[in-house]
User: Fold this.
Amino acid sequence: MKMQFSSGGVIYRKVHDSIEIALVAVKGGSVWTLPKGIVNKGEKPEETSVREVLEETGLNGRLIEKIGETTYWYFLKEENAKVKKTVYYYLLEYVSGDTSDHDWEVDDAAWFPIDEALRRVSYKGDKDMIVKVREMITAVPPAGGACG
Ligand code: ATP
Assistant:
């Protein structure tokens, strides 16, 4: 058994009154997922998150806070080994950049309204992170101070 640690991000921006997040397409464009990559030696997971989001989507983000993590297993043919992979996810606020500058390693990168992104992603772990982000971003304190 082999263990891998990656780090990814949900980068968001506000467009009028709606929230958009960026996804990347992989596997010939058939799977939309959150950007992520291996945590390099000497790198903090939050640094990996900002770096991988920039590399894969072309978008520069400001680190806000950790969202959570997800774990899955897969089989690595080249090493004939089962891999237990943990991916840490961070919330990033969009600063600059364009999805047309996405990495050649992904098939596409694009902004989606958060509810559409939730429908597009295939992996359960991605869905969980996006649901959490929706709660984190929309958890605005009620206007006018105290309630009740
Ligand atoms: P990284 O982006 O961390 O460098 P990678 O591209 O080498 O990773 P993964 O994206 O982890 O590899 O893909 C390895 C296998 O795990 C693939 O079969 C993929 O379909 C599957 N996989 C990828 N992401 C998830 C996920 N969030 N949940 C479950 N399975 C996943």
The first strand starts at residue 2 and ends at 15. The mean pLDDT is 95. Residues 124-138 form the longest helix (15 residues). The domain at 2-139 is CATH 3.90.79.10 (Nucleoside Triphosphate Pyrophosphohydrolase).
